[in-house]
Amino acid sequence: VSELTITSSAGRYDVEIAEGGFAALVAELPEDTFIVADDFFRDRIEGRVVWISAEERLKTVSEGERLLGELREAGARRSSHLVAVGGGIVQDLATFAAQQFMRGIRWTYVPTTLLGMADSCIGGKSSLNVGRFKNLAGSYFPPERVLVDPEFIATLPAEDVAGGLAEAAKITFCRGPEAFAQHRRDYDGFPDSAAVLLHHTLAAKQWFIEIDEFDRAERRLLNFGHTFGHALEAGTTFAVSHGAGVALGVRCAIALTRERGEADEHADELDAHCVRLLDRVPDLAQRLGTLDRAVFERAFKGDKKHTQDEFHVILPAPGGGAREVALPATDDTMLAVHRAVSATVGDA
Ligand SMILES: NC(=O)c1ccc[n+]([C@@H]2O[C@H](COP(=O)([O-])OP(=O)(O)OC[C@H]3O[C@@H](n4cnc5c(N)ncnc54)[C@H](O)[C@@H]3O)[C@@H](O)[C@H]2O)c1
Fold first, then answer.
1. The dihedral of CA 93, 96, 100, 101: what is its sign?
2. Do residues 88 and 242 make contact, with C-beta atoms less than 8 angstroms apart?
């Protein structure tokens, strides 16, 4: 069992990493507790549960409204405690429900995907989709407690494991060369070393979210790989998953840095690590074969970080870590971006 305490504007909250911790939590739930869970766990969780189907199309305000109504029907009150069990979709919906229910109730989050365990479980962010706009409506409402139980990793598909590991690699790389060297040692022992790897990853992320809770400076660096990654997801009509997109996006950012003559051995090590992670993703070449460059370009240009005249990308910094770089929003820059994609995925 290991613990971290996160300081946020909404107060401090504890993160506990404990193998088998979920079974222990369920065994001693207080009377006034309501569970909101991914319906993947229907056979494993009993009691007062509101089930959520973890589908992106249901990550909406109306699904949040359903949760609020069902919690009330089930007898939840202002003093009740919510326990959310699932990946990022459940987290996003549960954050909304906990924040809105009678102006806010206490809640605990139990992440069940590696992305949730290594990354999204701390930081307090939540977003819901509105029509075709992903993550348009959002807020901050951190849980009172996070319980990370690595036993949930056992049933995850290989691709989701690779995706979670890609986020973990990105976070530790951004934190600096020591954190990333530790991460590679932890990775060599994975999955046996999952609890240790998760502890080190969350401790690295903790630094970013405490120094810049609201994404104004340092925390933006955690977007490393995402400008390219999101565009690759969109350009393949989501045949490339988010996790694979992040690993590929990091590789594209490194390729662009290389072209600028600024890539050093730290960037090379991260690149080689991402290649190993991508080997875990089935049929990747086939899926990349569907890449539509026009759709990719539109998505790349639509990134929230950009300004009117500049593309803002996160690139590996000389000496390790990452930095935000503003590139002129010109056709020449866009050609360099396309060349970085070709260097990474071929001429798809
Ligand atoms: N709030 C945040 O800070 C934050 C951060 C990153 C991503 N997100 C959001 O999270 C979502 C993606 O979340 P995700 O990748 O964690 O997963 P998810 O919630 O989308 O779930 C993916 C699939 O895995 C299944 N699943 C969950 N746990 C499992 C387990 N232990 N074994 C087997 N299958 C399991 C689910 O039923 C679902 O089919 C996106 O909507 C994204 O926008 C939120």
1. positive
2. no
Q: Answer whether 223 contacts ligand 1 (Cβ < 6 A).
A: no
Top mutation candidate among 95, 127, 160, 222 for ligand 1, by most atoms within 8 Å of CB? 160
* Ligand 1 site, residue 54, Cβ cutoff 6 A: yes
Going from the Cα of 334 to the center of ligand 1, the distance in angstroms, rounded, reads 32
Query: Residue by residue, what is the 3-state secondary structure of 136-157?
Result: EEEEECCCCEEEECHHHHHHCC
Provide the terminal-to-terminal Cα distance of the chain, rounded to the nearest Å: 46
Distance CA 166, CA 102 (A): 38
**Ligand 1 contacts CB of residue 245 (under 6 A):** no
Position 280: which residue type?
A: R
Helix ranges restricted to H, 107-235? 114-115, 158-175, 177-188, 194-211, 226-235
Phi and psi, residue 42, nearest 5°: -50, -35
Please name the residue whose Cα sits nearest to atom 20 of ligand 1: 89
The residue count of the chain comes to: 348
Q: What is the mean pLDDT of residues 226-239?
A: 96
Ligand 1 atom closest to the Cα of residue 89 is 19
Nearest C-alpha neighbor of 239 from the set 159, 143, 182: 159
pLDDT of residue 234: 94
Evaluate whether 130 touches 204 at the Cβ level (below 8 Å): no
Q: Closest Cα partner for 247 from 123, 344, 122?
A: 344
Question: What is the whole-number distance in angstroms between the Cα of residue 230 and the centre of ligand 1?
Answer: 16
- Report which ligand 1 atom has the smallest distance to the Cα of 53: 37
Distance 261 CA to ligand 1 centre (A): 37
Instruction: Pick the residue whose CA is nearest to atom 42 on ligand 1.
Output: 88
Query: Over the stretch 125-136, which tens digit does the pLDDT of each residue have?
Result: 999 999 988 889
For ligand 1, say whether the CB of 149 is within 6 Å of any of its atoms.
no
Total-model pTM: 0.96
**Sign of torsion, CA 135 84 7 201?**
negative
Rounded to an integer, the average pLDDT of 9-27 is 95
348 pLDDT tier (thresholds 50, 70, 90): low
